Structure formats: structure tokens, C-alpha cells
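Person: At home tonight, work slowly through the protein below, taking as long as you need, and write a paragraph about the fold.
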Amino acid sequence: MQSNAALEYDYSLAKKFTFLTILFGFLGMLIGTIIAAQMAFPELNYLLGEYGTFSRLRPLHTNTVVFGFTVSAIFATWFYIGQRVLKVSMAESKFLMVVGNIQFWLYFVGALIATVSLLLGISSGKEYAQYEWWVDLVVVVIWVLWGVGIMGLIGIRREKALYISVWYFLACFLGIAMLYLFNNMSIPTYFATEGLGAITHSVSMYSGTNDALVQWWYGHNAVAFGFTVPIVGMIYYFLPKESGQAIYSYKLSLLSFWGLMFVYLWAGSHHLLWSTVPDWMQTMGSAFSVVLILPSWGSAINMLLTMKGEWNQLTENPLIKFMVLASTFYMLSTIEGPIQAIKSVNAIAHFTDWIPGHVHDGVLGWVTFMIMASLFHMAPRMFKREIYSRKLMETQFWLQTTAVVLYFTSMWIAGITQGMMWRAVDEYGNLMYSFIDTVNVLHPYYTIRALAGVMYLIGFIMFAYNMYKTMTSAKEITEEPQFRTPMA
């Protein structure tokens, strides 16, 4: 049997998806920065006509970040991690290489078509599920191809035990497959009317409250199985590899995994508090959201305790900074969400800017930080070159950390201010403030958010430049580093 050191891994697919991760990350964050600026300065809505308005760009932003940037990163890290923890090379199976390359090209072309469709206003109008039925079919094929690749690699593995990261990637595949299929069931309107619009559009198979329930069962768990589960899988691999420390508790990792699988699935109805959804279902969503703190913090604490006795690495290795801060933001986001799911808090928070504040401290601070750290760790091992600039990485870290803090604090203040102003009444029971009063009060916080977006985008451009220079002109290395990533 080949030893792990003797194996020559095939990183061709990991490299391709790394390129897409950087491309979609830049596009998604650029559009996000533009729409943040539009909230502060509404005249920016009219620079590009109807195609540059907030309503057209916002779905582009969310879908590019979710299905472009994050999913590309999931694929890139799987084709890297999967080979190494299973001790088998993709090159050993021509079938898996063919399947992987079909997956890549179908994904790339499909992503471009899907993006253009949203820009043209072809949308189902459902959050995180705006793609129409014909795009959904392509998504399903891509996902099935990835599943074939995962199962195929597991089938020819040399390592008998499945490391915890593989569990999380399997959960990502199975969870999103189930959720996407059920929520996106629709009927093309071609069967009712004629014309191009009838071909490209559809209506949901669900209606009314049922549609809302299925949508947010999907919507919240798209975050669970896209922004949480695979990212936890990444950190369970990359933090021990980068730090040289064994995971603090393997048992805790398994308890957290099964807790997350069971609890997360039933928390989605907290998006529908104070609506026409049955009260027992609202209460269930709130209860499961609060319980969700346990498995979420279980994983995060496991990561932080992995660094026990080695905290000096925070000052020596910027990649450890990224990963530790990512874990910290994960803890922050997964206590904030349950707090917002408590009915009395939700009465103030819902529909306010506190909600996007919560989403973005998770996505920017946890998901994106961990993805960038993962790609930084992978780059020297895939391209046989050291990281181009440690100083640039340090600067990026502090710039983006400042940006995230500015973003979520401005949105916290704006959201709570909104909620309180909407509920304020005078001695006669009349509303004290009009909607436009709240808009005027919030303008400074929208400006701060736009500034934070610009800062974070600049940090991502630094990351992309550092990665590009690493791939093309950094100092070559002769031996693969076992732990700490070499950098200039």
C-alpha cells in the first residue's frame, strides 16, 4: 500500500475551482458594495438604467456569493481535502476525472447563464431560490455529478476511517440535494400560456402558507448546509494542518455534527414569526433556534481549544489569525441568530437592518475568512510556491476585520433604531414616526455600511492579488510543508 507521503495528488480540479472562487468572490462582493452604496445614495440606482437598480442587482449579489463564491470554494476544498484524508489520488480513476471536469465546465457555463437570467429579470421571486426551472435542472445535474465524485472517491479510498471533514462534506451534499429539490418544485407557465415568458417562467407547486413554510425550511437550511456545514468541515481539516495541533476532541466533533444535523433542519420557521403560520410551528422554530447554540458553539469551542497552549501562533502566523477569528465570528453569529429568533426580540428585529447585519457578520467574518484561509493554505501545496507576501496578508486581515466590525455594528444600531421607531406611539396611540423619518435617521449608518463594503472589497482584491502572485511568481518550494504555510 502506498504511503501518504508517496502519493501524487491531482490538484487540477481544485485549481480550477480555486480560480472560480476568486472570480465569483470578487464579482459578488463588488455587486454587494454597489447595492450598499445605493442604499446610502439612491441616485446610484439610475446609472445603468433598469439593469443597475437595487432590485436587479440584489439577487445577483446573493446568488453569486452563495452559488458562485461559496459553492466554488466547497468544490475546490473538497477536491483538495478529499484526496488527502482518503489517501487516494483523483488521477487513479479516469472516470472520476471525466466526471469532475464535466462538473466544472457545466458549472461554469451554467453559472454564467444563471447570472444573465437574473440580470434580465427572469426570476421565481423566492429568496436564495430565484433561478427558474430550467436553471434548476442544470443545478441538479451539477450536484449529482459532484455526488458521484464524492462517493466514487470514498469507494476507492485507502484510508478506512472517514475523517470528520468528510462527514461534513457528505452532509452538505445530501442536505442541499434534499432541500433544493423540494423547494424548487414548480410548473412552467408554458402549459397555461404561450410565448417566451411562458417558457422561461414557472409557478411554485406550493401556495400560500405552505409555500412560505417550504421556502424557509429551504432558505434557512441553504445557509446551514452551504454557509455552515462545509465551512466547519474545512476548519476541521485546515486548522490542525496549519497549526500542527490535533483536534481538541474528536468526540465533541461528532456530538456537534449530529446535533447540528438534527436541530438545524427545524429552525427555519423562525423566519415566519408573527405571520399566518401556525403558532406551534413558530414556537418550534424559536425553540430549535435557541437549542442550535449547543452544536454550533460545540464546533467553535472545539476549534479554539485546539489552539490550547499554542496561542503564540496567533502572532507568528496570519493564517491562524484568519481561522481563529473565523471561529470567533461563527460563535458571534450563532448566538445572535437564536437571540433574533426569540419572539419578543423578533418583534423588534424582523424586517430591520439588524437582520442583514447578522447575515454579514456570519458570511464576511466566518465563511469568507475561512475560505480565504483555506485557499491560502492550499496554494503552496498545489502550485509548489510559497505565499507571495505575508505583509500583504497581514494588511488584508486587519482591513477586512475592521470592515466587518464597522458593517455589523452600523447595522445593529440601524436595525434596533428602526424597530424602536416603528413601534413608538404617542399618548393617543398614534405612530410617532413616518417611514421616511426612519430612512432619514438611518442614512449615516447606511453610509458606514457602504464604506465597510469598500474596505472589505479592497481586502479581497489584496487576497486575489496575493494568490495570483503566489501562483505565478513567488519563490518555488521543493518539499511540501507539513504544517505551517511558507510565505515571504
Remarks:
- Residues 147 and 173 are 7 Å apart (CA to CA).
